[in-house]
């Protein structure tokens, strides 16, 4: 009789153990995947949040895709050739930076400074018009001049894109006279005839743009010799 009771207790214990084991199996099957899924969702959220934060900090800006000289004239059709849009850290860009190529395509403009490849373009770097340069829009001729006593001046650093006034000594009065004003320098050369495109070297002759009305007076200066130029 006592043995039978013991057998019943052992049976109950085994049943209870089975139920506990079954409960743990249910937990492992249901709860563990839920925890893993929750962890993955949390990780994905953090990654997306970082991506969103990064994208929010980036800003589109217009940069030069080629080196540009000072006073270069860019037509609307040439904008895509000389500029492009990139994304940069927005915190490093001031409010006057161009952010769209469309802003540059409304009409032609001049560069106000030399612009290097990859340089961000700001409103102060460009100018829509320049009275000294607009005169060439209707056409021009090219000629060359050599400068006298050049080593005594600062004009040896004049390069392509500079605006100059041309003077010469009038032999009749022995006075320095201005013969051409606001002349555009198309190229600069050293004493050996090598074109100068950097700050190295001393320029002693130049190719310049001239309007038809300026040719006669400029030829006087060339014939007189003793040419002096002054950069504007």
Number of helices: 4
Helix/strand-derived class?
alpha+beta
Uncertain residue segments? 1-6
The 3D shape can be described as: elongated
User: Helical proportion?
Assistant: 25-40%
Beta-strand fraction estimate: 25-35%
**Overall mean confidence score, pLDDT:** 81
The strand line-up of the biggest sheet is 6-9-8-7-10
Largest sheet: 5 strands, antiparallel
N-end to C-end Cα span = 124 Å
Task: Spell out the helices and strands N to C.
Answer: HEEHEEEHEEEEHE
Radius of gyration: 39 Å
User: How many beta-strand runs?
Assistant: 10
Supply the number of structural domains.
3
What is the topological layout?
Layout: H1 2-57, E1 58-64, E2 73-74, H2 79-82, E3 83-89, E4 109-111, E5 126-127, H3 131-134, E6 141-146, E7 163-170, E8 175-189, E9 205-210, H4 212-224, E10 228-231
Antiparallel strand pairs: 1-3, 2-4, 4-5, 6-9, 7-8, 7-10, 8-9
Describe the 3D structure:
It contains 4 helices and 10 strands, in the order αββαβββαββββαβ. The strands form 3 sheets. Strands 6-9-8-7-10 form a 5-stranded antiparallel β-sheet. It has helices at 2-57, 79-82, 131-134, 212-224, and strands spanning 58-64, 73-74, 83-89, 109-111, 126-127, 141-146, 163-170, 175-189, 205-210, 228-231. Mean pLDDT is 81; it is low at 1-6. It starts with a helix and ends with a strand. The radius of gyration is 39 Å and the shape is elongated. The protein is α+β, with helices and mostly antiparallel strands and 232 residues long. Helix content is 33%, strand content 26%. The protein folds into 3 domains: 1-42; 58-129, Type Iii Antifreeze Protein Isoform Hplc 12 (Alpha-Beta Complex), CATH 3.90.1210; 139-231.
């Amino acid at each position: 009789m006592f043995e039978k009771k013991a057998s019943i207790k052992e049976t109950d214990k085994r049943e209870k153990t089975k139920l506990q084991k079954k409960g743990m199996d249910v937990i492992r099957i249901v709860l563990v995947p839920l925890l893993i899924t929750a962890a993955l969702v949390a990780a994905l959220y953090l990654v997306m949040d970082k991506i969103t934060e990064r994208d929010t900090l980036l800003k589109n800006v217009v940069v030069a895709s080629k080196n540009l000289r000072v006073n270069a004239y860019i037509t609307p059709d040439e904008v895509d050739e000389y500029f492009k849009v990139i994304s940069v850290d927005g915190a490093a860009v001031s409010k006057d930076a161009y952010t769209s190529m469309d802003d540059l395509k409304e009409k032609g403009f001049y560069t106000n400074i030399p612009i290097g490849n990859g340089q961000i373009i700001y409103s102060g770097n460009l100018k829509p018009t320049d009275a000294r340069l607009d005169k060439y829009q209707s056409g021009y001729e090219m000629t060359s001049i050599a400068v006298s006593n050049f080593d005594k001046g600062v004009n040896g650093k004049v390069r392509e894109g500079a605006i100059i006034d041309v003077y010469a000594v009038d032999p009749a009065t022995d006075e320095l006279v201005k013969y051409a004003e606001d002349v555009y320098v198309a190229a600069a050369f050293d004493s050996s005839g090598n074109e100068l495109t950097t700050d190295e070297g001393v320029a002693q002759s130049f190719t310049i743009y001239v309007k038809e009305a300026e040719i006669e007076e400029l030829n006087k200066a060339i014939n007189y010799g003793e040419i002096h130029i002054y950069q504007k």
